[in-house]
Design brief:
- The protein is built from 12 helices and 12 strands.
- By secondary structure, the chain is of the alpha/beta class.
- Strands 1-2-3-4-5-8-11-12 form an 8-stranded parallel beta barrel, surrounded by 10 helices. A two-stranded antiparallel sheet has the order 6-7. Strands 9-10 form a two-stranded antiparallel sheet.
- The protein is globular and about 60 Å long.
- 50% of the residues are buried.
- The chain binds glyceraldehyde-3-phosphate, 1,3-dihydroxyacetonephosphate (13P) and zinc ion.
- The site of zinc ion has 5 residues, from loops.
């Protein structure tokens, strides 16, 4: 058993309380490799932004949970080395799908876990979430739960349609489970294709897809039911057109990729939404930079020469999100 406190990590309790009060959101960035982690830590240290480092099931399969945990521990030390005196870094399990997995993360030094039982029937979601909460809270580890189903692919749980969170269920769910935060469904989804072209309109000037707005009425109704309760938005990448264009220009093929417009995330960040999950945008930045080097310098074979530019572009992306979208800069001096 390792406590996250020994590793210099923090749970989400104080982070979220401050974020709701201050009208900003904490960035929750997924990481799978060293370059992503370096870019996240540099961006957060420079902007003094609290941050949630997320490890998904896919990341665990790809990079190994043990290695990722030591990397997160290293991130705290790296942050200090960069001059960030009191790093506010949370290590979070993204989309945990069983009690055993959540328990293993708690035992292993994670400071926060998500139990995603949103695809189960309501009562089963409550029972599993409650079990995880009871265990995690013994060690002061915070728990995110989910109610409602996002469209697209949630790890291995696939759903063709989005089922918005039902505001009439949230009080019962939060009370009976004791969860610390609630991920909701209001129209976001995972990946770089968040909406089909049929769900969008087209900008007559650029010909680009304009997605439908998020269901802010559902968010408002949830906040009315649970005043001041921490709300989480998954699937919140914006799929920046510049990265999509770069990828397509240098031999990629991402037709009609579309994300959540940043002005909608800005609006959400000012509300009780205090954790915004971003993964796909970082993947796009990484791929765009690598493709550019490969296209322009076909003789290059030193990975540092293409992973380095990818890291730089991701760092720029993370800073942009922190400063211009979430407003979390300067909140962890
Ligand atoms: O929620 C999904 C995240 O983007 C993680 O995706 O399972 O492919 O790592 P992944
Ligand atoms: P994106 O695919 O929009 O980046 O969402 C990531 C996410 O929700 C991770 O849990
Ligand atoms: Zn997610």
């Amino acid at each position: 058993m390792v406590s996250f406190k020994e590793l210099g990590l923090v749970n989400t309790r104080e982070m979220f309380a401050k974020a709701i009060k201050g009208g900003y959101a904490i960035p929750a960035f997924n990481f799978n490799n060293m370059e992503q982690l370096q870019a996240i830590v540099k961006a957060c240290a420079e902007t003094k932004s609290p941050v949630i480092l997320q490890v998904s099931k896919g990341a665990r399969n790809y990079a190994n949970q043990t290695l990722l945990r030591y990397m997160a521990q290293g991130a705290v030390e790296y942050a200090k080395e960069l001059g960030w005196e009191h790093p506010q870094i949370c290590l979070h399990l993204d989309h945990g799908d069983s009690f055993e997995l959540c328990k293993s993360c708690v035992d292993f030094g994670f400071s926060s876990v998500m139990i995603d039982a949103s695809s189960l029937p309501y009562e089963e979601n409550i029972a599993l979430t409650k079990k995880v909460v009871e265990y995690a809270h013994k060690y002061d580890v915070t728990v995110e739960a989910e109610l409602g189903v996002l469209a697209g692919v949630e790890d291995e749980v696939s759903s063709a349609v989005s089922h918005y969170t039902k505001p009439e269920e949230v009080v019962d769910f939060a009370t009976r489970t004791g969860c610390d935060s609630l991920a909701i469904s209001i129209g976001t989804s995972h990946g770089a294709y968040k909406f089909t072209p049929e769900q969008c309109t087209r900008d007559p000037k650029t010909g680009r897809l304009v997605p439908p707005p998020l269901a802010f009425d559902v968010l408002d109704a949830i906040m009315e039911q649970l005043p001041g309760f921490p709300i989480v938005l998954h699937g919140s990448s914006s799929v920046p057109q510049e990265y999509v264009d770069m990828i397509n220009q240098y031999g990629g093929k991402l037709p009609d990729a579309v994300g959540i417009p940043e002005e909608q995330l800005r609006k959400a960040a000012k509300s009780a939404v205090c954790k915004i999950n971003i993964d796909s945008d970082s993947r796009l930045a990484f791929t765009a930079a690598v493709r550019k080097v490969f296209a322009e310098k076909p003789g290059e074979f030193d990975p540092r020469k293409y992973c380095g530019p990818a890291r730089d572009l991701m760092e720029q992306l993370y800073k942009h999100k922190i400063i211009n979208v979430l407003g979390s800069d300067g909140k962890a001096e």
